[in-house]
Design goal:
By secondary structure, the protein is mostly beta strands. Helix content is 14%, strand content 40%. It contains eleven helices and 33 strands. Strands 10-11-12-13-14-15-16-17-18-19-20-27-28-29-30-33 form a 16-stranded antiparallel beta sheet. It is globular. It starts with 12 loop residues before the first helix and ends with a strand.
């Protein structure tokens, strides 16, 4: 038996039904579908010559559409008829699109190819010369504050670039927003004048700003509308505390937006309005009074949910929330979650509904759960920092890696949204529980090869961790990005105590960067992940420090290197059965077992590592002739996990796995199916044999079964077990394929 074969089974019915359900109601066309001859029906719509837009964007901008997949393949619905008037309008729409972004002389000629089975349309786009913004003349902008860049800097960056009206307008909006945030509340959009030299394809833009005087805040009036007739439950002083705008403050548009956001974030109000009371012209032209009007909302709610996922099987969750606990802005949440329903005891009632990989995972044999309460506040002592306190108890597993059972845990976290795109957190977490690892990993990595050693490792272990993280998202869509970039990083430092280790200090850092650009009619995305864990002064076992298993680094899976199952990229330990080994006696008279040539294994267990690098490259594109809701993807993932104390980074050790995928656009995000191809031989590792016969290692002895010289007196020493066992490579292409399903893009 070689690499575990996880093929589509009954567990694929659920995701495939989801694909069918979403694909069926395809987008309807707005063009007429009245009766007409077959030769007058639109068979296909194509585009050529556009230097800026892909076919999907162009098709979404016109009315004339080709029939969808349900009409072409299943003959459901009527094929749209050709409308000659709408066809001319579509040509004008496409020409205006290109003129707006810098091709002033763009023209579009629709061509009609009439055939017995329908009309084939092609919009031939001739963009003409590209218009360049040669000069920008700016008048009326005030001097910036000391140490800050000028208000005109974003506009100056547009000079000598293509004259894209949309980009110019958005840049002007940014400048006006910055003026209003600097106290110029009356700053309107500037008067503009565009001079075009058609012969030279050059543009001169003149902007005249009139920001007026900088103003400050006068009085702040609070009005609270009750949910029902009677007095409001929320005191106006509590609203003023959340608004955090005081009389005499310099007017800042961002402060008003932050105040409105904080009021909505408290979830105590169904409507929030912040208006100015002082007319924009008058005697008090340097003061603005504010009126804050809020309408109370119901502050208590309860909800339940049921779902399915590849790594969780059936999962359920419930939540009760009080959004006015001890005053407005304070939120109390009681939540409970359960996963592995269907495969984990005592809820192992329908294993056939779960994925094949999950049924093979020993750490999914128990029901996973979470029960906790969270208390949060919108602000911390008036500062724009959100404090969160959580107390919980849980059992959670990482597939094929470990099972973490926490009797009691607590998390204190402070988070701040620095800008609309940048956020940061800092926190402290304490857990008192135990981490259950596979006996093979406990033996190979921690040296716990006797039953009493493994039993001792199951006792409680206290862990305290201080962490901080930061992220910046500069993409156009957080769920399904098509352009932009994002970065994220976090650092963790902790200390643990257990019967095995009196005290151990460990550190872990992770960084991630991704970027997205349009390419070949679709989107190309690239991501790089780096991670490093270390424990200075910790005891080494087989070249690895004794870092808690949940703090070690794993890779492989649906959001990592997709040619591998979850966490199975990196160092592995193989567990073999009695039918796969030769039982003999060594030179010193001790029992020795050796795996047979070509024999397979029962399961592969990831050891984890202390360093990781993962890189992903993916191209995805929708094809209109099938369905606009469908996207096809091609990807290559590469990476590796290793132990830094026993081996270094080598380019040749990276594992690259190509693959193909399908994306279905849904209201909840893209539903994703990926198939990764793993072209490499299985990784060599230790082979271990459990004499207990039940593969638990708790009632019998653990023996080394790796190929080795049995005449060596140390052949029976489990601590000298070499990593020389390499499973046989599976035959055929299907044995090298790995299937993944998920909601949302891989990165």
């Amino acid at each position: 038996m070689g690499r575990p074969k996880v093929f589509p089974s009954f567990s694929l019915v659920i995701p495939l039904l989801a694909v069918a359900a979403v694909c069926w109601p395809l987008q309807a066309s707005a063009q007429r579908v009245t009766r007409c001859d077959k030769a007058q029906r639109v068979h296909s719509v194509k585009f050529s010559g556009s230097p800026r837009f892909d076919a999907i964007t162009l098709a979404a901008s016109i009315v004339t559409h080709e029939p969808g997949v349900k009409t072409r393949w299943f003959r459901i619905g009527a094929t749209p008829c050709l409308d000659s008037l709408e066809l001319r309008r579509d040509a004008l729409r496409l020409a205006v699109m290109h003129r707006q972004v810098g091709w002033f002389q763009a023209s579009v000629i629709p061509t009609i190819d009439r055939r017995p089975d329908g009309v084939r349309l092609r919009f031939a786009i001739t963009p003409g010369p590209e218009a360049i913004l040669d000069t920008i003349q700016i008048h009326g902008l005030p001097a910036p504050a000391a140490g800050t860049r000028g208000f005109d800097a974003p506009l100056r960056a547009l000079e000598h670039e293509r004259f894209d009206r949309t980009r110019v307008d958005s840049t002007i909006d940014r400048v006006v927003a910055r003026l209003r945030d600097a106290g110029y509340a009356r700053a309107p959009r500037p008067q503009s004048q565009v001079v075009i030299d058609s012969a030279a394809a050059r543009v001169t833009l003149t902007l005249r700003f009139a920001p007026g005087r900088a103003v400050s805040i006068g009085t702040v009036q609070i009005e609270v509308q009750p949910l029902q007739d009677g007095s409001p439950r929320v005191d106006s002083a509590a609203v003023a505390r959340l608004v955090a705008i005081r009389s005499g403050d310099r007017f800042r548009a961002s402060a008003i937006l932050d105040a409105q956001r904080d009021l909505y974030r408290s979830e105590a109000f169904r409507l929030v309005l912040i208006d100015t009371l002082t007319p924009l012209t008058g005697v008090r032209d340097s003061v603005l009074d504010l009126r804050v009007a809020v309408a109370e909302a119901r502050t208590r709610a309860a909800r339940v949910g049921v779902g399915w996922a590849t790594q969780d099987c059936i999962r359920m969750q419930g939540r009760v929330t009080d959004r006015g606990f001890l005053g407005v802005g304070r939120r109390l949440e009681l939540s409970a979650r359960a996963s592995k329903i269907g495969v984990g005891t005592p809820a192992d009632v329908a294993p056939a509904l779960c994925s094949g990989a999950l049924r093979l995972d020993p750490f999914s044999e128990k029901l996973n759960y979470y029960v906790g309460s969270t208390l949060s506040n919108t602000r911390l002592f008036g500062w724009p920092v959100q404090p969160v306190l959580t107390v919980y108890s849980e059992r959670r597993g990482e597939p094929f890696a470990y099972l973490r059972e926490t009797g009691v845990g607590a998390l204190i976290e402070l988070s701040q949204q620095f800008t609309t795109r940048t956020a940061g957190t800092a926190g402290f977490q304490y857990e008192n529980g135990k981490t259950i690892t596979d006996p093979a990993v406990s033996c190979a990595r921690f040296g716990q090869c006797r039953p009493e050693d493994f039993a001792l490792s199951l006792f409680g272990r206290s862990v305290g961790i201080v962490s901080t993280s930061a992220s910046h998202d500069h993409t156009n869509d957080a769920v399904n990005p098509s352009r932009g970039w994002r970065v994220r990083g976090d650092v963790r430092a902790g200390e643990t105590f257990s019967p095995l280790v009196t005290s151990l200090v460990f550190y872990r850092g992770t960084g991630e960067a991704s970027t997205y650009v349009r390419f070949a009619g679709g989107v190309i995305g690239a991501r790089l992940q780096l991670s490093r864990a270390f424990a200075p002064g910790a005891e080494l076992v087989d070249g690895s420090p004794l870092i808690p298993q949940q703090e070690r680094i794993f890779a492989g899976g649906q959001n990592s290197v997709r040619g591998y199952q979850q966490n199975l990229l990196g160092p592995l330990v193989y567990v073999v059965s009695g039918a796969s080994v030769l039982d003999t006696v060594g030179s010193n008279g001790d029992r020795v077992v050796v795996v047979k040539d070509g024999a397979g294994y029962d399961r592969a267990v990831p050891r984890g590592g202390t360093a990781m690098v993962v890189a992903n490259l993916e191209w995805r594109r929708g094809f209109r002739f099938i369905a606009e809701e469908l996207q096809f993807a091609a990807f290559v993932d590469a990476g590796n996990v290793w132990e830094t104390h026993s081996e270094g980074f080598r380019w040749g050790n990276l594992r690259a796995t190509p693959g193909l995928g399908l994306r279905v656009v849904t209201p909840l995000g893209p539903f994703r199916m990926d198939v990764g191809y793993q072209p490499y031989e299985p990784r060599a590792g230790r082979a271990l044999f459990f004499t207990s016969g039940d593969n638990t290692g708790t009632t019998g002895e653990i023996l080394c079964a790796s190929p080795r010289d049995i005449s060596d007196p140390r052949a029976s020493d489990i601590f000298e077990c070499p990593s020389t066992y390499r499973p046989a490579t599976g035959r055929g292409v299907l044995s090298r394929l790995t299937f993944h399903f998920g909601l949302g893009q891989a990165f």
